[in-house]
Write a structure and sequence with these properties.
- The protein has 9 helices and 8 strands.
- By secondary structure, the chain is α+β, with helices and mostly antiparallel strands.
- A hairpin with a 2-residue loop joins strand 4 and strand 5.
- The longest helix is centred in the middle third of the chain and has 41 residues.
């Protein structure tokens, strides 16, 4: 391995150490790799969603079939071609992927499947004009792809941890309530249309034959646990927005036939 390649891999690896936030840095990895290889680079999910992208000024313009803005969906047929690549495929002729000959001429690409726990999570696509990718370019690309896989793994674990935390907070809040307060929350959920609603608590209390104070106390406990947020709308009532969707999935279909 040359000293230059070692420096380049360290530059990519440094992105992981410098990322103190919980935000996945796919676009940062694409930009770093793209600058090192003088190429455009993008990470696409298995469903065809662009997770990260970098457009190099000297790379071919593939916008006719390939949207490169983060969050956009690429052409479904193009994504199918990406997913058909099961291992690293280097120096791919862009025309074989379905791009027009006018932009394919003199251009080449690397396709790298992104896996996590044996499951296909997406594809890293790198392309440029001019010279083909040499061995060191391919090694660097595979290293960057490994970093991308690590970022996907981290994002999935953080998502799982966040879901567990939200369930734990909700469970603790519900356990702190009396039966009357739990019933009040169940009644409120029956009034929701989606994740938020404006309610006049006195009318809800009258409808379900419970006291307004019980409804207010129950909402305060959930608000304190970060499950929902409330905002007074004056004469219009109280705006309620659900922050923890577990409340809807686990308690939203409760049977309140005893009302």
């Amino acid at each position: 391995m040359s000293v230059n390649l070692l420096d380049q891999t360290r530059r990519i690896g440094k992105l992981l150490h410098d990322n103190a936030s919980r935000v996945v840095i796919f676009s940062d990895i694409c930009a770093c790799l793209g600058e090192l290889l003088s190429a455009s680079c993008m990470v696409v999910s298995a469903k065809g969603k662009v997770l990260g992208a970098y457009d190099h000024k000297e790379a071919p313009d593939l916008s006719a079939l390939l949207r490169t803005s983060v969050g956009a969906l690429i052409d479904p047929q193009m994504n199918e071609r990406f997913l058909s690549v099961l291992s690293t495929k280097e120096n791919v002729n862009l025309q074989t992927l379905g791009f027009d000959r006018s932009v394919s001429r003199g251009s080449t690409a690397i396709l790298l499947p992104v896996y996590f726990a044996g499951e296909r999570m997406g594809t890293t696509f790198i392309y440029r004009s001019g010279s083909t990718f040499d061995v060191e370019d391919i090694i660097l690309s595979e290293y960057a792809n490994t970093v991308i896989e690590l970022e996907i793994m981290r994002a999935l674990y953080e998502e799982d941890d966040e879901e567990k935390r939200m369930k734990s907070n909700l469970s603790a809040a519900m356990e702190s309530m009396s039966q009357s307060e739990q019933k009040a929350i169940s009644c409120l959920l029956r009034e929701l249309d989606g994740r938020e609603v404006i309610l006049i608590t006195s009318r809800v209390a009258e409808k379900y034959k419970i006291t307004r104070s019980i409804i207010v106390n129950a909402m305060r406990k959930l608000e304190g646990a970060g499950v929902l947020e409330t905002k007074s709308m004056g004469m219009r009532g109280t705006h309620i927005r659900i922050l923890n969707d577990t409340l809807l999935t686990e308690y939203g279909t409760a049977d309140n036939s005893q009302d």
